[in-house]
Predict the 3D structure of the following.
Amino acid sequence: MPKRILQVVDSAYRATLEEQDDTVLWITQAMKGAGGDLSVLLRGSAVNYAVRGQDASGLAFGGKRQTQPPRLAEDVAKLVEKGIEVFVVSDDLAERGLERGDLIAGPKAVSREELPQLFAPYDMVWHW
Amino acid sequence: MADKKSLTFVLMDPPFENPRTTTALRLIDLAVRRGHDVNVFAYEGAVYVAFAKQTPHANAVHGRDVEQEDHPIPKDWVAAILAEGVKSGSKIDWVQCGLCVDERGAGECVEGPRRGSPADLLKFAETSDNTLVIPTK
């Protein structure tokens, strides 16, 4: 049985325009593809990754237009499709004025009070 | 060494930007000095920690030439840690994230680290006693 790893994403939009994704969501997908057992918890400003309707297109410098923007909500949805559980901290959503209806389908809301129980079954919790 | 452990460190910061790089290398150095086996996964900007073209400089503000300045160069710290591992019996496996290297043009690094992928990080995590992630903030 592979070790269970919970990836806690706290720093949001860290070089996402340059990387075309969040590097932790990316490495989570890659490690899942290599046989890993991983889940993701979005907390702090990273809860915004699950918000529908984000549009980071339009970046241009001089005549150089960036044609492929990051699509964070789509990336979160792909994690769920691949069997990676994604959690969002409900208190962090509320503090930012976000409601459940603002989010894509798939991520599960957990409160801060529930985090210890969420962490308990994992062999490792990696705080990014 | 009866209580020899296998420890994995994930680094993400480039050198010369914040104290996390130095702190991470101090932790790695301590583990190596104590003879533990150490894996390092250098992710994103951290592939520059072992970059071979880092060059020490003089510092006119300090009034010192390059020799007097003894400018700290992280690649030299990495090399020293790897050399310490030979003395202490610590097995060190330092992996540079290959795609991170490519997008930064950081292919030249000191002798010792090898190119790898997230699959190496997964293997490290599966086989280590513990893993510490030190991310960019």
About this structure: Chain A has one domain: 4-127. The first strand of chain A starts at residue 4 and ends at 9.
